[in-house]
Amino acid sequence: MSHDSTTVIASPAPVARRTRLGRQPTVLALLAAVIAVDQLTKGWAWRHSPLAKINYGGNVFVGDTVSRWYADPVTGALLDLVDFGVLTAAVIILLRRRLPALVVVPGALMVGGWISNLLDRLGLHHLTAPGSVRGAVDFIPLGSIRYNVADVFIVVGTLLFMLALTARAWTTNRSATASPPPSTGHRRRQAWLSGIASAVCLVVVVGFGAVNYGGVTTPAPTSVPTIIR
């Protein structure tokens, strides 16, 4: 009798462990897929698209002063470090927090886009865009501004992430009003606030840490052989 009781009590633990571990490969696979798609399209654009150019970290939203910080070797390296720390914290949250798939998936898409752009500034541009300044390849035109696939993942992922957090917080508040458990509600409220704060930080920290060590900002034109007569 005691042996059967022990077996029944111990069995839920492996199930919970499998559920928790199952989320981690999903997050890592989404991050890897976003980075792979973005880097492949950047490499193609640098070699074939006439619209390709390098964004070393600045943009119209942060102004000329902050853009110069991105291009400076010292301040750019410090801002790269800030980016790395923020994104590392975001990945840890996605891997360890007990969040539903509706929050985890857009969060992973958003963070994956930021990581891919940061990898360009950390040196991957030597492979994606040989001979370029340190930065990310932009080639998708929208008015006078150009973007890349990582930017698309960031924008779409952030919007879906914020909507998912808002919907989850609203659902939690309704259930808490119907049958309020004080301690659980408090912990969930803290989780929502930390999730929103992480999303805001990711949106604010745009392309930090671009360091320009020389090179071109647009690909060299394809040379056309001349016929000597």
For the biggest sheet, the summary is: 2 strands, antiparallel
* Estimated structural class: mainly alpha
User: Could you give the distance between the termini?
Assistant: 100 Å
- The strands making up the biggest β-sheet line up spatially as 1-2
Query: Rg from C-alpha positions?
Result: 23 Å
* Fraction in beta strands: 5-15%
- Which spans of ≥5 residues are poorly predicted at pLDDT below 50? 15-21, 205-212, 223-229
Percentage of residues assigned to helices: 55-70%
**Number of discrete domains:** 1
Helix tally equals: 7
Mean pLDDT: 76
SSE sequence, one letter per element: HHEHHHEEEHH
The strand count comes to 4
Give the oligomer, counting copies of the same chain as homo and different chains as hetero: single chain
Dominant shape:
elongated
GO cellular component, one term: membrane
Family: Belongs to the peptidase A8 family.
GO molecular function: aspartic-type endopeptidase activity
Organism: Actinophytocola algeriensis
The gist of it:
The protein is mainly alpha-helical and about 230 residues long. It has seven helices and four strands, in the order H-H-E-H-H-H-E-E-E-H-H.
Provide an overview of this structure.
The chain has about 230 residues and is mainly α. It has one domain (about 20-205). The chain is built from seven helices and four strands, in the order H-H-E-H-H-H-E-E-E-H-H. It has helices spanning about 1-10, 10-50, 65-70, 75-95, 100-130, 150-180, 180-205, and strands spanning about 55, 135-140, 140, 145. The strands form two sheets. It has a two-stranded antiparallel sheet with strand order 1-2. Strands 3-4 form a two-stranded antiparallel ribbon. Helix 4 packs antiparallel against helix 5 (about 100-130) and helix 5 (about 100-130) runs antiparallel to helix 6 (about 150-180). The longest helix has about 35 residues, at about 10-50. The radius of gyration is 23 Å and the shape is elongated. The N and C termini lie far apart (about 100 Å). The model is unreliable at about 15-20, about 205-210 and about 225-229 (pLDDT under 50). Keywords: Lipoprotein, Membrane, Transmembrane, Transmembrane helix. InterPro entries: Peptidase_A8. One of its GO terms (molecular function) is aspartic-type endopeptidase activity. It holds the Pfam family Peptidase_A8.
